[in-house]
Amino acid sequence: MPSDSSHALVRQGFFGWLAPSSPKKSSSSIPKPPARGPAPDDVYHEENKAVWKEVKDRNGNESTLIFAIVSSDQKKPMRKLMDEKKKGGKLQSTVVVTTQSHLQDVMNATVGTRYKTLYLLVSSTVDYLTYNIAGFFKSVYVTPCGLRSQHDALYIGSSSTFAGLRTYEWDRRTDSKLLKKRITYAEGCVIDLQDNLEEARRVLNEPIVQPNLEETDKVEIKRQFDLFREDVVCGSEGSRGTSRHGFRGGKVF
Fold it and tell me: How many structural domains is the chain composed of?
């Protein structure tokens, strides 16, 4: 999957890269006109449509802030699409189109605002995300958009934090204020522990904090914890063809 920059080779499944084949000589001496490529705004049409679908499903509350995170080349057509939706009266929530490289600057600008809920809606053109989310948000949701294969997960950097706490430590929070907050990873998210594996193992040996939750929530926490431990011990295959250790997305309480 492409990251925040374009690349010249074509990915061939999980096994490596396939270089473009050599051009064949034409038997005709009459030159053919060059094929007309798609207009710049059409290149990311499907990706932008997938992001818009997620935006539309979450739009409607003025206390909701939505970040549509796309690749650099995708940013302009995505902004154009959001402007059209806004002019058409289809946006009630605030939607900000940005890239991974500018995400933190945009987040820092929201400190002290009225927003309570934050959505990070990530295009399939982005495969790695890091962030430090301020604690004034009550709920945070991280959602990969579009179709992603098993090996095209959205990786969340282990240095990412919410309210000053690393996200993979979230179910061990003890502060009463933090217990009232929630961060949720949709299916397709993986917390990348490759650069912080020893710390993650230390965290895994600590007891999980289970506040006053429904029994079904406690069962879900245990299930996620078991998956997390299994991934750390065994590792998981990442989208870049290297072994990674991570925690797959789901609810994190």
Answer: 1
